[in-house]
């Protein structure tokens, strides 16, 4: 089991599952079925799934769903979750108002 | 695995992906080699999404106009997914007399090239965008400009090309192009060797090192730009924005978030360890720029920032060109920070060039050997 580089690697037909309606990313309301379909559409990495579906791009920045999506990618591709790269963390750590960030910590 | 294809494309950004798609449509076999583990991880997923004609050099303008007229309006339908293309115009804003002079100059030039763009006063600008601050005195207005979602457009081309059988290999770093019997033929990666009848080099700034392996150079530099994104806001407006002072640019996305880009002015001397990292002072600087024009956005929260490299040509126009000394090699780089909006056109042209068709637009202005000394 290794990282998959060839994006034509077959993972079989997309088979609907009974819990595909389950919401995985709560901030952006992305379901399990949408994520599984994206993987079958060629989105093999967490970063690609974020960019394709917005899963993990909401207010919590993926703190809740990232681990779940990682597991789903590994399962669909038949690889170990350890082979699924994490996403880059982006500043700021917490959402911050423009008026505050623009002030750079100076007294207002 | 089949290591041979009609066309090998180096670089899985939007230029490589769109070219792969148009080639697959023509029935060619294509392999795309991408260094990153993620498709489109270069400028293509990091840009501001501008699909603009205004402000473009006269050589590049026909490419931008062709895309806006013939390709962008139907792209979502063609690729089978929404790329969030909005054609609601571009406002370039001015706050001082000097800005107005700059804008008027740009507008005059664009009009003489056949683009529908005009100067508008404060009241007209306010009528188009009621959120503008009273500091904005005038603007240039191009009603046919717009924006799209760069991540979705880049991945939509990838998804469709893959569906048509294009073989994308990620985590595959190209080290060298090799000639066989005087013709470009082999693409050597750190792990393998691929062979193609035609090789298209579309690896952004990194194209320079790869082209050097067959003795070709493109006079370009790398530069860093930053982008920030707000949490979702209620729908406000869908024009693309820019300013005469170049203090920020951006738009509101389908999702509701605003995507704004800019710089601190210190990029050329900042340390970066070779990766596109954000600098602690840049987002603050961009925020100040935005709030001068849109004070109402002051309460909007920034959720994310990132940086990306652009490949800046010495004359700010791309190289899209077959290489005479290396038959079989086509270069597509040096997009100078505006390669997203013209990507559908460029992909169309490259596919035509690769199969030996006459390109639908004249590409002679984009030759690789156009660079001359100043005296
Ligand atoms: C912050 C920012 C804002 C921008 N705003 C706009 C805008 O509003 N409008 C607009 O039109 N344009 C904009 N641009 C420019 C636009 O993003 C680029 O011109 C465009 O994406 C170029 O696409 P590309 O495919 O040539 O490059 P890239 O997306 O950079 O793709 C090149 C690919 O080649 C790969 N590669 C590199 N070396 C190798 C190697 N050795 N082997 C294999 N692969 C390799 C890279 O990993 C990368 O994926 C902006 C750019 C940035 C960074």
Instruction: Please name the fourth-level CATH homologous superfamily of the largest domain in chain B.
Output: FAD/NAD(P)-binding domain
- The beta-strand count of chain A equals 3
CATH architectural grouping of chain A:
Orthogonal Bundle
Query: Any low-confidence stretches of chain A, pLDDT <50, length ≥5?
Result: none
What is the rounded distance between the termini of chain A? 56 Å
Largest interface: A-B, 32 and 42 residues
Please, how many helices of chain B? 9
CATH architecture of the largest domain in chain B: 3-Layer(bba) Sandwich
The name CATH uses for the topology of the largest domain in chain B is FAD/NAD(P)-binding domain
Computed structural class of chain A: mainly alpha
* Average pLDDT level of chain A: 91
Which strand order do you get reading across the main beta sheet of chain A? 1-2
Number of DSSP helical runs of chain A: 4
Judged by helices, strands and strand pairing, the structural class of chain B is alpha/beta
Q: Please write the CATH class name of chain A.
A: Mainly Alpha
Radius of gyration of chain A, CA atoms, in whole angstroms: 17 Å
Q: Distance between the terminal alpha carbons of chain B, to the nearest Å?
A: 52 Å
Total beta-strand segments of chain B: 18
Ligand list: flavin-adenine dinucleotide
Sheet having the most strands of chain A: 2 strands, antiparallel
Major pleated sheet of chain B: 8 strands, mixed
């Amino acid at each position: 089991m290794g990282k998959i580089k060839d994006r034509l690697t077959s993972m079989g037909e997309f088979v609907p599952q009974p819990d595909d309606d389950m919401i995985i990313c709560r901030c952006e309301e992305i379901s399990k079925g949408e994520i599984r379909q994206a993987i079958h559409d060629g989105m093999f990495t967490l970063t690609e799934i974020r960019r394709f579906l917005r899963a993990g791009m909401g207010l919590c920045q993926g703190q809740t769903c990232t681990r779940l999506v990682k597991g789903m990618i590994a399962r669909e591709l038949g690889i170990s979750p350890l082979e699924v790269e994490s996403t880059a963390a982006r500043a700021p750590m917490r959402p911050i108002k423009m008026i505050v960030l623009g002030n750079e910590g100076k007294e207002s | 695995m089949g290591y041979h294809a009609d066309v090998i494309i180096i670089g899985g950004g939007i230029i490589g992906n769109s070219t792969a798609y148009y080639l697959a449509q023509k029935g060619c076999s294509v392999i795309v080699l991408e260094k990153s583990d993620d498709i489109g991880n270069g400028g293509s997923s990091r840009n501001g999404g501008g699909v603009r004609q205004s402000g473009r050099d006269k050589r590049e303008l026909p490419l931008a106009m062709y895309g806006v007229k013939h390709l962008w309006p139907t792209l979502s339908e063609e690729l089978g997914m929404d790329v969030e293309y909005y054609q609601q115009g571009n406002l370039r804003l001015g706050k001082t007399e000097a800005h107005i002079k700059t804008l008027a100059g740009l507008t005059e030039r664009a009009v003489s090239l056949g683009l529908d763009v005009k100067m508008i006063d404060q009241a007209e600008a306010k009528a188009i965008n009621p959120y503008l601050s009273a500091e904005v005195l005038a603007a240039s207005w191009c009603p046919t400009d717009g924006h799209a979602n760069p991540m979705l457009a880049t991945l939509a081309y990838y998804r469709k090309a893959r569906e048509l059988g294009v073989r994308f290999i990620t985590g595959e770093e190209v080290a060298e192009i090799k000639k066989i019997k005087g013709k470009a033929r082999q693409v050597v990666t750190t792990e393998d060797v691929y062979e193609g009848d035609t090789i298209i080099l579309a690896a952004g700034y990194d194209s320079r090192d790869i082209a050097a392996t067959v003795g070709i150079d493109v006079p370009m530099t790398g530069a860093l730009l930053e982008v920030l994104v707000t949490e979702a806001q209620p729908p406000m407006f869908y024009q693309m924005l820019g300013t005469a002072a170049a203090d920020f640019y951006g738009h509101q996305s389908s999702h509701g978030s605003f995507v704004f880009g800019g710089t601190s002015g210190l990029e050329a001397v900042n340390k970066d360890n070779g990766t596109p990292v954000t600098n602690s002072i840049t987002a603050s600087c961009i925020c100040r720029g935005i709030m001068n024009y849109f004070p109402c956005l002051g309460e909007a929260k920034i959720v994310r920032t990132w940086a990306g490299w652009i490949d800046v040509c010495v004359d700010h126009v791309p190289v899209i060109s077959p290489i005479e000394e290396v038959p079989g090699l086509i270069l597509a780089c040096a997009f100078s920070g505006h390669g997203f909006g013209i990507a559908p056109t460029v992909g169309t042209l490259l596919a035509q060039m690769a199969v030996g068709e006459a390109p639908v637009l004249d590409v002679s202005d984009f030759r690789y050997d156009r660079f001359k000394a100043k005296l």
